[in-house]
Fold each of these.
Amino acid sequence: MNPSNLEHLWEEVRELSFGTTSKIDRLETPPSPLHFLRHYLSQNKPFILSATATRHWPATTLWSSTNYLTTTLSSSLISLHLTPTGHADSLTPNPTNPNSLCFASAHVQPTPFPEAIHAIQNSVKGGVVAYAQQQNDCFRGEYGALSGDVDLDINWASEAIGGGPEAVNLWIGNEASESSFHKDHYENLYVVVCGEKHFVLLPPTDVHRMYIREYPAANYSYSQETGKFDLELEIPPRNVPWCSVNPYPSPENKEKEMSEFPLYYNGPKPFEVTVKAGEMLYLPSMWFHHVRQTPDSRGLTIAVNYWYDMQFDIKYAYFNFLQSLKGFQEQRCHKSDSHASVSYNDSDSLIDENVFDDDENHLEMTLTRKAHLF
Amino acid sequence: MNPSNLEHLWEEVRELSFGTTSKIDRLETPPSPLHFLRHYLSQNKPFILSATATRHWPATTLWSSTNYLTTTLSSSLISLHLTPTGHADSLTPNPTNPNSLCFASAHVQPTPFPEAIHAIQNSVKGGVVAYAQQQNDCFRGEYGALSGDVDLDINWASEAIGGGPEAVNLWIGNEASESSFHKDHYENLYVVVCGEKHFVLLPPTDVHRMYIREYPAANYSYSQETGKFDLELEIPPRNVPWCSVNPYPSPENKEKEMSEFPLYYNGPKPFEVTVKAGEMLYLPSMWFHHVRQTPDSRGLTIAVNYWYDMQFDIKYAYFNFLQSLKGFQEQRCHKSDSHASVSYNDSDSLIDENVFDDDENHLEMTLTRKAHLF
């Protein structure tokens, strides 16, 4: 697709939301509910809130002590995600055809918390990488014993949105783990408690730059005996639409990636923002994000994020329309047959289908479905 | 353009904003600033507020007395808009070529208020139709003597938006005057004080259904001596982009209009809403609206509207992208030459140009420019 109109859209969103600076707003004190709604949530615009906002959290001091954590959670079984690469929910060579890619999910091992912390601190790429994360409201479940250490909601956000968070999730990892580009159907308030997280952000209007394609779902399984991972495609087969772009390709892949994903590499620079200990990022719904982390001195990065329901409104309708355009234009410009027929060999059409399914069902979406939705 | 994706967009906005009822919300009491921001302004979604909200306005009783109005404004000169048809800022046969249309503006006659009221009450289509309206904050200017009779701002809107109205306008007319389809770059709170106003509303996502085309600007001039109107094209020539659709074509034109504007006539039904005396309509920025009126027993419809600045945010960027698509797709699908060249015989390209000019300049827009912008 000739991207001239899209390029204008990408630039205009940046100009309108961030002016000439292209810098994400930094607030020293929490916004009022009105200010948050008017300037950020309604405009689908991110900001960083300084650490003063969480200074009153016991977690900001207590969680620096591994001993405190292991004692408090001594009897907790938590969901530990194991991969050989540190890339869970990410694209990996297809085990049945190494020239193609699949969407690989981690081996999830219920693990006593003290063991889990040990595994995380000893994570090494190429060996076993452990990441404690489960996007199913795990903080109020598996980690309930820590619930007194943080605010159970972000009060100005709850007041603005008119209700508490639908999910609160805890993340404990080290530099070996990263999250590939994706978006969530939630308003996300992301607090780093220990270490740092490094986000690469793109607005929803950049959807064509992410090259969302369908990949067969696969799952890692890890054997305690052999200490080896096995990766197998799901049976029955299932396709997952996922971003094809990796913002940090290896030097030997860089050129290939740049020629395969020109809209990403030739378009406006993504927003890069580091969230330090105690700081909070407002990550607006539908924004694409890639996340890396730097651990603290003992080798841990710990974060808590609050997922609030988003409004499925005119912005969401505009997004679905935008995402559907590529397939549409190919049909209009290059296909003589009816646009009604959807070829399962045409990833664009599949993406359209997915968008519309997603939309039709959004009201009944379950937490799990939403967390994995594209 | 094949409208299958557009049709989905039109339907989805309706489904998301209005569910299956397709009825505009009706509030019995004013929303809190948070409720207004969260459920209406942020979602670009209209509502009607019941007359209880303006019961405390002296205007709701005082303005029913023509004597009160003429006494209070006995020494005021007001801008009276005169046309032979009751259609100002509207499409009319081109005086130099009756087979084409032009964009005709009214003859604006500074008139002592008591005379103006007399002219309005005696307005007849085909003779002289007088409409007291001037979208330049006229209520706080020409009609300043009435300013104590209404709230000078809508407090919950001012608090939500973070400032007072940029313009407050007064409208006094009768059934002979109507406003053709257009949109404004403002959040609009529209209060009918006497009589009724009948709105036809379409969301911004329906822009292609309005068939916005360029028309040469023309102006009526009225001669007191002859009692006749003259319509002349502006010199130097100036084009105005305007909606081509008339929701109430005469029976003899109906068929022609339906074949000329299929997206309007075959798309989802527009929203029709009547605002009664004392009621307030929240007309979100960028919504297309057509307005007719029914006078009270003495032959007058009186309304006050509050224009608040809109946020030029991601919704606005999406709108500009959507509006630009038609020309773009014609270039992609039907034109082999570069999309960079803009033909001044191609109304689509002109519309795109207009959108982008408008966007580049929106920060410096003057009140007058905004009021006439498409």
Amino acid sequence: MPLNIDFVTPFVKSTVDFMTTMAQVEVKAGKPFAKTDITAMGEVTGIISMVGEKHTASLAISFTKSAIVAITNNMLGGTIKELEMDVIDTVGEVTNIVTGGAKKLLVLKGYKFGISLPSVILGKGHSVVHTTKAPVVVIPFSTDNGDFFIEICSMSLKKEKVN
Amino acid sequence: MPLNIDFVTPFVKSTVDFMTTMAQVEVKAGKPFAKTDITAMGEVTGIISMVGEKHTASLAISFTKSAIVAITNNMLGGTIKELEMDVIDTVGEVTNIVTGGAKKLLVLKGYKFGISLPSVILGKGHSVVHTTKAPVVVIPFSTDNGDFFIEICSMSLKKEKVN
């Protein structure tokens, strides 16, 4: 199954928009690559699903502790140091807003999705496995306070899934 | 927001059906309760989303290592001892089939959903936070080889989400 790169540009654009405007964090997107093994992610990961009649996709956005703590402090004007509730809420919010922004751009390409509630995974050294044969695209991002990355797995559906 | 118990019976029934027929594992459902804090889950967790026009829900099914290894060996006729790829695949499959079974029962109650691809989370002591103000229902299950539990978080949507 070929890598679906339709999703890359909308998510890069939506992430950069969010980080530079709402979080006021300078961010640089790296070169996307295909995920080939089960690698451990950051310490905190937001997961969200996009479910449509013809396509389904799942997204994981995983942060190093230093990156998400800095982003949260920028957004809330705080001096948080640990992965407390405000940070978890921020991960959920970033996941939701970035996906919502990408969705608007994907609509222009003919994709129609509903978006799930985000879930946030906590735990040092956790990994996320997307249970599908479709390739997973990883987009790395770097900030002055550490890295984060987005994994996207998208699939065309043969039959209608929303009924 | 009140606990939505519409989801409890369909998921209990679907889980017990799956475990007794496809996995040939005797399972006992415990009393459902409301999740009130961030508690660590099992060692491996399947996550799936249900996205409809009027409702959205997310489900996490989390297994102790001993429980899921026994279930996998029952299903595949193997002698696996660790959380290897077959076990991860089984978690994805259980998550998918149990949710598909519950969906059929929820349709009879007027719920209409599309189901996302499942994701599987690995990592000792990870936790899953459902980022919503809606209460999370936990249904505990026990087997001879250990416990697993299902967390369900469901929410009515004010506006249409699948567009």
Amino acid sequence: MAIGLSTMLEKTETLLGSDHASVVSMNLFVALLCACIVLGHLLEETRWMNESITALIIGSCTGIVILLISGGKSSRILVFSEDLFFIYLLPPIIFNAGFQVKKKQFFRNFMTIMLFGAIGTLISFVIISLGAKHFFEKMNIGDLTISDYLAIGAIFSATDSVCTLQVLNQDDTPLLYSLVFGEGVVNDATSVVLFNAIQRFDLTNINSTIALEFAGNFFYLFILSTALGVAAGLLSAFVIKKLYIGRHSTDREVALMMLLAYLSYMLAELFHLSSILTVFFCGIVMSHYTWHNVTDKSKVTTKHTFAALSFLAEIFIFLYVGMDALDIEKWDVVRNSPGQSIGVSAILLGLILLGRAAFVFPLSFLSNLTKSSPDEKIDWKKQVTIWWAGLMRGAVSMALAYNQFTTSGHTKVLGNAIMITSTITVVLFSTVVFGLLTKPLVKHLQPSSKRSSTTALQITPGSSFHDPLLNGGSSYEPLLSTQGQSEYTIDQPISLRMFLNTPSRAIHHYWRKFDNAVMRRIFGGRGVSPIVPGSPVETSVRQWSEEAEIKEQNGEP
Amino acid sequence: MAIGLSTMLEKTETLLGSDHASVVSMNLFVALLCACIVLGHLLEETRWMNESITALIIGSCTGIVILLISGGKSSRILVFSEDLFFIYLLPPIIFNAGFQVKKKQFFRNFMTIMLFGAIGTLISFVIISLGAKHFFEKMNIGDLTISDYLAIGAIFSATDSVCTLQVLNQDDTPLLYSLVFGEGVVNDATSVVLFNAIQRFDLTNINSTIALEFAGNFFYLFILSTALGVAAGLLSAFVIKKLYIGRHSTDREVALMMLLAYLSYMLAELFHLSSILTVFFCGIVMSHYTWHNVTDKSKVTTKHTFAALSFLAEIFIFLYVGMDALDIEKWDVVRNSPGQSIGVSAILLGLILLGRAAFVFPLSFLSNLTKSSPDEKIDWKKQVTIWWAGLMRGAVSMALAYNQFTTSGHTKVLGNAIMITSTITVVLFSTVVFGLLTKPLVKHLQPSSKRSSTTALQITPGSSFHDPLLNGGSSYEPLLSTQGQSEYTIDQPISLRMFLNTPSRAIHHYWRKFDNAVMRRIFGGRGVSPIVPGSPVETSVRQWSEEAEIKEQNGEP
């Protein structure tokens, strides 16, 4: 342990070795991040663009400029670092997703989300693996082993939840958002778990024992990861509730929440669990319990700080992927066989389309069978949107591909080089082309004026004035406005039949009962929220928030 | 440039090389940070402790535990990395200091602060250098060159502004806080500039030309650094004011402010300026202009996020210094001559006490000559407090000492080893002993009931109820409450005589005129603050803030 720490810090020392060049690079990178934010803001009005694509394009352009300046000699402009991604950039994004997700929506659709995220990913994984094996064996692209094909399946089953966040709007299409995004997180986790399992197990001889072990491993990871996240979230609620009684310090609270969220992620890494799942559930629990125990100022601060950090990490990733795509060394090997590389990329894109279609439509059908109300069913328009919105492949795929195909200088091997360049091509193509088409498609299929009727916050049609105040723009209001609602409990017995008919509802109902009875006493939660509804502070916060919204709506500076 | 970027990222890759050991270390470190926050909170009531000392002690204890676990073999527990400190940990602290400083106080005492920070540090530098040369030459501790002695002067002239922030209270003793802290920042900058100059110039033959060049270099750095910081701050105000008209996005604003602040720091590093000064002035300008152009939510968020990040970085540093102090290798060399090491440390501590006394009392006397009102004069109690509060030496000293005495494996040389261990001893001793005594001393000399009458916010005695609401606890209120004051202008001509008599006042007056006339039109500033005093939003924010304070005061959860 001690040695690890020292190695790490010695490396940090060399890393940051105050050479002028790295200072130049950092300046360049920070300046580019600023440019992305400003450009993203300016382009927000257009229906095609989003911040990811802007960052990707700016990154690629910078890559080209640097390549030209260095006279085409600089083969490595910016190397994609798997660990930088998994240790620093991904945690804030996934945590924030959990923190901001509409929990009611999420838990209401829990079963569907799990169905899509776990079973769906497995279906997609099988199809892509088999397809890749079928096609690539005929193409003579170097010797790929069975575990390589399985890895390809796992790599290209990982949807880009980051990009999804940018194309779907939580407030306009809450059902779709929670389904696609929730699925994305579970899917990311499933892919990573699958990938790790592939690297760990000897899969040359698959038999039923190994398959069972594999499945057992998967559920073990899933349950433990979730439990760890929930435990970390509850710990933060407990500590903040018990220790800070009466003398809240905003800065301490904010710092402690950040640290505990990060600790949950790192602990999951330590125990080789799925850190993505852990930090996601930690975010959910923190927004459900911890957030209601902190001062009003901490509420506003955490909400926006986590969002801003996540936003920065997202742009960073896309800028990074854009710049990395220009790395000459990778393209050198495949230069002699451009046809092959294009062919592989095209096949992979086709398999992604097919693999996703193969689970979205059947599983939606299955999910619809369990729903009684037509409002909760996933109609074909929604199914197409779900299918399309999950087609993008992003940084998780890149990171996994690097892990599998660049181990110990194997990049020079043709098969590995082709797989890396194809991954980059697929990521760029799917993000830019599929990404560009998603916003118009969603607008076409799901006109935003027609709000989904399964919204947690029932809004009477025509209340166009209060509507944006409650649901739009502000990311502060939605959580606040669900305040009183957990007081409301249905005192019906939970029957097995009810469970079978509407499983997600029953779970939600059970959760609410448990939540009311036990959890709130210990961890605070909504019930003992420091903002008592109707109190002067609550009125004031609401009033303030609403007035700020009105100002924003009216375009005042 | 391209190569620099790639080198940096390749190193990042090796750095983070997903070895299990570094994950363990990160977990340990994050957990310790959490422990420091919780313990710091629990110990807040005691008059002796502060978070720095807690972190220092926890760090040392952990160091001992790791040393015992590894059986005394692990010589390097955690290596203090100069660059980690200067590139990641220092910027948020200094930026936040500029962002939260009471600008009116700061500019009112600008001349005194500059006098203490620049001239004072030079005096201290000369005394410590001469003293070190005088004593150490007789002590036979290896061959130290003239530039080593000068470096020692610069290293031990750097007061620890981080620790100062923790022992003095901006609200209880605003004059002292702004003097000591303002001096601390200028002093840090002066020390770093001096230190760089010592390393750059050939100082074996000092003559008047070199001395002049040295002085010229100093002022050049000082002015350019300040200008860069101001420019970055104004740029952020301009961009946010012009581009985000009417459709503010809190997350974008927060992200952009963070990025631009960091960019100013890195640009200063790039141009070899004093990045500490740059980011400090960037913070001041951002709180004066940018902060008034953002949404209310961004106001609360930035205020607390910057404070929380700075708070985390502070604890990190002290934990780091505490753990680093246990590095066996450094102590190995000096083990044979413990007397020498203790002697050197004692001499250095004496020189620090003397060097600081040699400028605080004479310069206070000079400063008092220019003040007419007895309220603005620095009485002897205040002088003693200023002298004492600046005695602590911290991470800046450590970083500079490492830079000077550990270059290319020279740690094994006796002289270098002794200087490193003595620096650690001085830092630990001054932080713990002087730090522990500061709070009681301040309480004894400056009873908090007797508020300084030069406070920007004049509070009538006896208004004990409103007092804490306006000044105490909340770090949100102070900036808000100075709202209307920039409307008020004195239409008297600025005479040279006025300038000579009360220089700081004249500067403040001139600044206010300029600020009103030009700056506010372009950059927003207070005058065109989006919160119009008396408007519903302003009333609501104030009301909300006050109610939250009352709750806090009353000990409600």
Amino acid sequence: MSTAINKYIGQHQQRFIDELFDLLRIPSVSADSKFRNDVLEAANFVRDKLLAAGVDEAEVITTAGHPVVYAEKILDPVLPTILVYGHYDVQPADPYELWDSPPFEPVIKDENIYARGAADDKGQFYMHVKAFEAMLQTGGLTCNVKFMIEGEEEVGSENLEDFLQENQQRLKADVILISDTSIISTETPSITIGLKGLSYLAVEVTGPNRDLHSGVYGGAVDNPINVLCKMIASLKDENNKITIPGFYDKVVALSEAERTALAKAPFDLAAYMQDLGLEAVDGEKGYSTLERTGIRPTLDVNGMWGGYIGEGAKTVLPAKAFAKISMRLVPDQDSDEIARLFTAHFMSIAPATVKVKVTPHHGGKPYVTPLDSIAFQAASMAFEEAWGKKPVPTRDGGSIPIVALFDEILKIDTVLMGFGLDSDAIHSPNEKFGVFNFVKGIETITLFHKHFSALKNKL
Amino acid sequence: MSTAINKYIGQHQQRFIDELFDLLRIPSVSADSKFRNDVLEAANFVRDKLLAAGVDEAEVITTAGHPVVYAEKILDPVLPTILVYGHYDVQPADPYELWDSPPFEPVIKDENIYARGAADDKGQFYMHVKAFEAMLQTGGLTCNVKFMIEGEEEVGSENLEDFLQENQQRLKADVILISDTSIISTETPSITIGLKGLSYLAVEVTGPNRDLHSGVYGGAVDNPINVLCKMIASLKDENNKITIPGFYDKVVALSEAERTALAKAPFDLAAYMQDLGLEAVDGEKGYSTLERTGIRPTLDVNGMWGGYIGEGAKTVLPAKAFAKISMRLVPDQDSDEIARLFTAHFMSIAPATVKVKVTPHHGGKPYVTPLDSIAFQAASMAFEEAWGKKPVPTRDGGSIPIVALFDEILKIDTVLMGFGLDSDAIHSPNEKFGVFNFVKGIETITLFHKHFSALKNKL
């Protein structure tokens, strides 16, 4: 059967890629309101392709923010049901000047598709649409399928919780399947079993009530940029431990056995540094690079600005300085609690010479997939059959805030069957996705359906 | 005689203001190349007004950057000669949204002229043009006058040194008179006897060779913004002393007597803080607010940026972070040496995880006017006659880099007879200049001419 499916995939591969290109041409940037219409256009495009692929019904469901595309194909209520989650929105593409080709004009170079969203997540969720088509057209569909493709993942899925609450019946399923993560390499397939949570905040430091001449006032009036630098610098100690009181209280320490298992994932630090153009890496003392990204919470300034940032020199002592700061969380840290702890601490370290405003932006809870679940086993078998190797379970620094929500609201296990590579430069200029990964991913997804239904029927 | 001059000033006051408005309407921002033509237009405007005021000759002299306007009126070679320096270029006006009225559409509100450059320095140097006209038209001109009005003061007067070298003969004079500073208040006239030097640098911190996903790499790859914050924070210790090795070595400490004399200047800290909307001020331990701005060197971040600074949230670990940093210097610090010390120190504190680039932008030497000079005495007498009070000598945090150059290259003393107020918001939105200050300043300038020639003739 899988041969018929693979044959179909091979015959229609070029069309699959052409369709993906059409989707990648739509600049559906959810963070920036000037792309609002493009985001809607992308939603409509996804609905139309799902209908074309053969679902019973598909609709663009409005939310308080960007819409959710929902579709389903119910073969037979007694069959197991797979709920596919993905997102059609993308990160902002700037800085545009660093792209070798325009971010919304996809091109193939060296067997890679270059475009914003190629890997995150248009290229990855679209594999499910095409896998579904291939199974349906070849009579190889063995599970009911539901699609929930949202448009706010890159801005924290703020309206998805309400959507889940309001659509619990409709979203009933046996497993949630998501392709929005990476494998270690095409030689070493892997499945992400751990996802970090996120707490994202915006801070504003205000000094004088107007921009001042740095000569007339400098040295006597505290400079908001200098103050913000000092406050941010104090958020980590000399061992790169985060200094926010209570920050680590709920962090679940891994056993030596777990750390040893994770350490089995092949990793070449020299190659890693060379790829990034770095001469040294640094992070929390006492942990390896993979542990720093995978199992330890982190804090990064994602953006900072203040004063004169134009051409030439301006001797100004600015009234305000700003920063966007995010923390990646691990089980059992709670993003709301961390946001509260950060806010209280940040206010407490502000000197009397400034006023500080902290605005929680968005967050998400961390999640870990149970290794003994049928869902994980089916995914592992699918990879093994398609790639000829057992996938390595890994823990990823990335966050998919709503995975924890699925667990909490829908009570359904999630499997993160991603096919990207860390070198895909998601969220960066020149984002790419391998043509091989795209095609192989479609095949692997069809095999997940096969093994999942088989394991279910054994019960 | 001065009555005839004052009568003339009174009769032509409205025209003087109208002419100044025409000049203020020209957005001659020297820092931004897109205003290049406006800068040239301003130069031509100044030349034409000088010719109209009655100089023998006036020309716009090209330099490697923006041109210098030179003009002169030689009554008689045996008479003393006053060289007037000023600048027709202005600071960038952004942030535009904080202006109550457009920066290049001057308006009078509450007896103040609001516009970019109203006080710094168009309104102030133009007083000399009109004072000259008033003296010439009423037969009250007693000195030869030369005008050197440049267009690069706000970007460090980079080409003026060459200009001075090439025009030493032409610029011969007995004193250089500059109005580009402030008085304490209209009740308490003052003369700035000390000017700070400046050393302005741009720094760039580079981490990874591309923007990264802060989830995938955060915690394992050092973040250039966090690193830059830490480096900047370390530039001052807990007493707000600058930590750059050797920074204070050449600072001339004031005697207790000098500090006591400066402390005589009336200063209301509560009013100062209220004007700035501050609940506290802070600065170098062991010095008063006036000493921090007047006699102590300082360091300020004038601008900083990195990562995502647009709308919404982007979870990026940026490749680069940038800052513009300036230090205000006092006698006998040398701006080139300080730039070298800063650069060496900043490179030395950079961790191995980043590459740092430091680019010296521009600088200027500090200067102090000799109180026993005829020039200072004439200025003091002019203020006393016009304002009814002896002016207080003050030391100002501002920098006019080329004053030290005049001393060095032309060997001529400079008198800083400024008429602005600290509340004029120079370099900020809603810059203003009092109509009273403008008119009174013109009168004071004519009295300086009178007393300077009288004192010279006594010799």
